[in-house]
Amino acid sequence: MTTPRYIAVDWGTSSFRLWMIGSDGSVLGESRSDEGMTTAAKTGFAEVLAKHLATVGAPETTPVIVCGMAGAKQGWVEAGYIDVPTSLSAILTGAVSVPGQSRDVRILPGLAQRDKASPDVIRGEETQLLGALEPDSTGPQAVCMPGTHSKWVHVEDADVIGFSTFMTGELFDAISKHTILSHAVAGVDQSPADNSAFKASVTAAFHQPEMASNLLFTARSGQLLHGLSAAAAQARISGTLIGLEIAGALSDAANDTPIVLVASGRLQKLYETAFKSLSLKFTTVDADAAVLRGLSAAAAAIWQQ
Amino acid sequence: MTTPRYIAVDWGTSSFRLWMIGSDGSVLGESRSDEGMTTAAKTGFAEVLAKHLATVGAPETTPVIVCGMAGAKQGWVEAGYIDVPTSLSAILTGAVSVPGQSRDVRILPGLAQRDKASPDVIRGEETQLLGALEPDSTGPQAVCMPGTHSKWVHVEDADVIGFSTFMTGELFDAISKHTILSHAVAGVDQSPADNSAFKASVTAAFHQPEMASNLLFTARSGQLLHGLSAAAAQARISGTLIGLEIAGALSDAANDTPIVLVASGRLQKLYETAFKSLSLKFTTVDADAAVLRGLSAAAAAIWQQ
């Protein structure tokens, strides 16, 4: 029987995921909850971790590798940032030990881009990135990790050149709930059901990003003048914000830069549809699989396993 | 003594303004409140108007000319839209009478742009526009009416060619209050106090509109990495949204198109600063004076005064 070798934890702002990994690399147990940094900062990080370790029956000495917001200033132990440009492998060596624990617990650092014009930070996605890229990949790649704050990382060979955060998911939420467009999308589910409206808006915003805040308004004026459906209005908001994001993310990239989409579920489908409607070449890596692979690479580097 | 000739009313979504105008064109009385369409739809439009007429002591037969949301579908009496392209003077002839009133009450129509790609509507600003432009103006002009929803109208000679709405003010509000950036701007007044941060962001967004949702995020990452002040963070949000708006509004215009800014107070200062930092030529017309001049032109056309 395979024995537990290490515990991998992805500890975000609002979610917690733990896997127990065996000596043969297989997943021996898994535990998830919504006890992200925000919750754990109140109830205690050590307590949350202990509960999930008990859930999977982790032996007392199995070490733990953590990525994500647990390493933020307002998290458990600040794990700092690795400055870009940097090699991907530097992330593996920057882990910080959590003091006072009965077992070895380490938290991986984030990435920081400190130049004055485009300051930016990443925490958690650097580990997805580690897991998403082939170790021997060459040439430029643009890695897209969509979400509340979408992260686009520009990689050349095995070096991180720079990255940009786009507030796409959060803007979608704020605009859909807290502007006049909330009336336009009333009663619609989260997923844009109107695929053709979504594609048209992605294309419009990609080619005319300067019209973004006007394109958003057409979700309303289109209803007033053309009887646009609520589903189409929502697809227009979503498509405009995603088209704007892609235009920005690729503005400094060569036209044929390969895109690696790290996503799953609803966001994966949305971004795949967007890339296709713009005739952009991309490959998809499952987001969960990527973070687990990244944590495993870190565990292997730290504990020479 | 000059006698009351007509009553001019600018009835917006959230504000009500009434002027009593004498036979010599002078303002004999004025009354304002926050009884805009939203409030009046509940308390009664006729009642709100009667109260303000009493405040200024309007004679029983003095006619009333109204512009704004009182003419919307959800307003008092729907005044419809004049389709663009149109001559400015068509607005004057499209007024609708409010039935069942003891005095003559008319509401001016809005403007509609019905093409499929860029549907848009204006209600209220068409009257500001009437008052802002010289009757004998020639050539192309871009008229900017900033606000919750900024309106840019493209005029050629005395014809309205087309227009665009940008959700600048409402986006600023939703982003400042309902995203992670609310922490970045906590405790700051509404007016951007950091002028240099504002100008830098206007310029950045104008020249790289595709980076808008990334530039917004730098209000936070700039604080994390460079100790950006809350005032500068707010100026960055405001500047980014205004720079994006101007880039979009002028994207189809010739470089030397004269801009007419119709604004007052805080917004006037903000947009003047933005235009100057982009080296754009503009003239400013006071927004209150413009709407009153527009209403007067309509009164003169309707009642041959």
Strand order of the largest sheet of chain A: 3-2-1-4-8-7
Q: Note the run of SSEs of chain A as H and E.
A: EEEHHEEEHEEEEHEEEHHHHHEHEH
Shape of chain A: globular
Give the percentage of residues in beta strands of chain A. Answer: 15-25%
Query: Mind describing the biggest β-sheet of chain A?
Result: 6 strands, mixed
Q: Give the uncertain stretches of chain A in residue-range form.
A: none
Please identify, by name, the CATH architecture of the largest domain in chain A.
2-Layer Sandwich
Oligomer: homodimer
Instruction: Name the largest protein-protein interface in this structure.
Output: A-B, 45 and 46 residues
Which fold name is given in CATH as the topology of the largest domain in chain A?
Nucleotidyltransferase, domain 5
| SS elements, strand count of chain A | 15
CATH homology superfamily name of the largest domain in chain A: 2-keto-3-deoxy-galactonokinase, C-terminal domain
Termini separation of chain A comes to: 18 Å
